[in-house]
From TrEMBL:
InterPro entries: AAA+_ATPase, ABC_transporter-like_ATP-bd, ABC_transporter-like_CS, P-loop_NTPase. It comes from Alicyclobacillus fodiniaquatilis. Belongs to the ABC transporter superfamily. Pfam families: ABC_tran. Keywords: ATP-binding, Nucleotide-binding, Transport. Gene3D superfamilies: P-loop containing nucleotide triphosphate hydrolases (3.40.50.300). Residues 6-233 form the ABC transporter domain. CDD domains: ABC_BcrA_bacitracin_resist (cd03268). One of its GO terms (molecular function) is ATP binding. It comes from the Bacteria. This is ABC transporter ATP-binding protein. The keyword Transport applies.
Length: 304
């Protein structure tokens, strides 16, 4: 079993009668990019605020780096960088100067400012005043600030919210290199599966405060193996024939559907149908996108 950087047990947060986070057992493996996915209002920000010690859980425990919160809050936060809300800056100061203000507070050597500017690809814009930065550049500066203290864990709450595709791409690219190049474990929340799909190694799906799924992202895909779709001239007859052969077949209109069990099995199905005098017009594979899988998990009325 891999080492966990974050482990929560039965983490719960209520606001009055409303339960925003309900018995969450999160496991974030070391070196992962953990995509924390859920529609708006699912409980992502509330969870992240608890992980950062910004609000207290109503019940349940949090362990980060094998230490408990709130007891070891300072030790944990010293190793954790975060970007939770859109960061605010001194607009008249440059990117470098803004980071310098934080570096002095954190007592971080100034050479670290150059390093983090490099990581977020803002070196060439470092001397420009921040009021001229695009939203994407401001978010990257926020990530640079979160990296100043050389964290082992970086927690980003919807870092691409409101960005254009180029801005989203930049953030994704820089997040992807953090574990391998700098040994940082990343938790990144999003309501967009497509975004998580392209960068996460692990995924946790939350809806209405409940964790519906968590595992390596391939496991999410494996759970939903692709189907074969068959178009034939006599679908009912074909269905009965295949079922008599012990195969699992269903019908959607005139299209037969069955699990795809590989090329040999497909060839066998084809041969059986042809030998029974059934014309096979088409056999195709339907692979479900992660988006479909996600929609199976969450409320389809949700704000995705
Ligand atoms: N301070 C608060 N007081 C009352 N209710 C709250 C408070 N903070 C959050 N909630 C409620 O808890 C639920 C979860 O909110 P949360 O912000 O954690 O969701 P989220 O998944 O981060 O969604 P979003 O992407 O919209 O921020 C929501 O129903 C929200 O209204």
């Amino acid at each position: 079993m891999s080492e966990m950087v974050i482990e929560t047990s039965n983490l719960t947060r209520r606001y009055g009668k409303k339960i925003s986070v309900n018995n969450l057992n999160l496991h974030v493996p070391k070196g992962s990019i953990f995509g924390f996915l859920g529609p708006n209002g699912a409980g992502k920000t509330t969870t992240i605020r608890m992980l950062l010690g910004l609000i207290r859980p109503t019940s349940g425990q949090i362990r980060i780096f094998n230490q408990t919160l709130p007891k070891h809050r300072m030790q944990i936060l010293r190793r954790t960088g975060s970007l939770v809300e859109s960061p605010s800056y001194y607009g008249h100061l440059s990117g470098y100067e803004n980071l310098d203000v934080i570096a002095r507070l954190l007592k971080v050597p100034s050479k670290r400012i150059d390093e983090v500017l490099g990581i977020v690809r803002l070196t060439s814009a470092a001397k420009q005043s921040v009021k001229g930065y695009s939203l994407g550049m401001k978010q990257r500066l926020g990530i640079a600030a979160a990296l100043l203290g050389n964290p082992d864990l970086l927690i980003l709450d919807e870092p691409t919210n409101g960005l254009d595709p180029a801005g989203i791409h930049e953030i994704r690219a820089l997040i992807k290199e953090l574990p391998a190049q700098y040994g940082i474990t990343v938790v990144v929340s999003s309501h967009l599966l497509g975004e998580i799909d392209q960068m996460a190694t692990h995924v946790g799906i939350i809806e209405r405060g409940h964790l519906l799924f968590q595992d390596a992202i391939e496991k999410l895909r494996e759970q939903n193996s692709p189907k074969l779709l068959l178009q034939v001239d006599k679908p009912l007859e074909a269905k009965r024939l295949l079922q008599r052969a012990g195969l699992q077949v269903s019908m959607d209109g005139d299209i037969l559907q069955m699990p795809n069990q590989g090329l040999a099995a497909t060839e066998d199905v084809n041969r059986r149908l042809i030998q029974a005098g059934i014309s096979v017009y088409r056999i195709t594979e339907q692979s479900r996108s992660l988006e479909d899988i996600f929609l199976d998990f969450v409320d389809k009325e949700g704000s995705l």
